[in-house]
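Support request, please re-run this one:
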Amino acid sequence: MTSFHDTFQAALRRWGTRDAIVTDVKERVETACDHGSEPVRFYDVTFSTVGETRSVTLVIKIALHYEREILALLNSQGHRNIPLTYAEDLHTPIPMVMCQQHAGERRSLTSEEVRTIAHSLAMIHAMNRGDAHHLPGMRRLVSHTFLAWWRPIWQQALMDQSFVHEFGSYISEIEQAVVRFTYTLDRLWQEADSLTMLHTDLSLWHVLVDHNHLYIIDWDQARYGPWYLDLPNLFTLETVLAYYVGLCNAGIAPDMVTFLANFHATWSFVGLKYMIPSIQDWLHGERIQSRTDLHALLPRAIAHEAPSI
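Re-run finished. Output below.
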């Protein structure tokens, strides 16, 4: 039996099946990788409880201390759309084993499911609003850290003749766009009323569905910053209104005009962020996919607002 037997049993007991006794574990052939290219493995776990035998699929990955803490906090807050997570050690600052419930598969979402995710995200933001001290090491998404990550790769791109030849028409507008974005980010930090825990990489890729229940996964890039940065990668100008309703249901009612203006002002974040990995691919010689991606991302990066409904 796998060496994760004790981990699975402890996880099941932590999650509410107090008398669970794991009787069999089978590793699935399928695997996946997380953001850091660490393998994610799936196991069919059979256990007994109160005289009956049950089975469940559980996930094992090696997670950084930061991600283990983030998920422990979200679980402690009772968010139903966060996978149940168990890590024996939340204190040792090195990568360690983490167990999660299997969160399902990726598929397109119905309009009702988008509303569900919008309300769930709004509740996460509301519960963590204005408190950067839940976790002592919570990383902050501020303009100087964003630029410290963004600008060196952009400067490398400007020195690459093939990049300049292909994308030169965007260069001036990208420079203007990053100034606009960092100005907006600084302003939102100064206003402070939208500061909260962020996922920062929230797209449909990180929403899984298991028997019609939705889960938001992969919180290893979580940051503290304005909630608007979590919105433009998942919501449109139409569907973001469901998030606004979720905030109102959580007791927060920002001015609608201001809310939509800030949504427009942060729309370029998706393009500015994801153009960097694509530029790195370009600089490393992977030109086919990166060319396609950059021709999609650069117009998004220079956009002044979200497209109309």
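The mean pLDDT is 94. The chain is about 45% helix and 20% strand.
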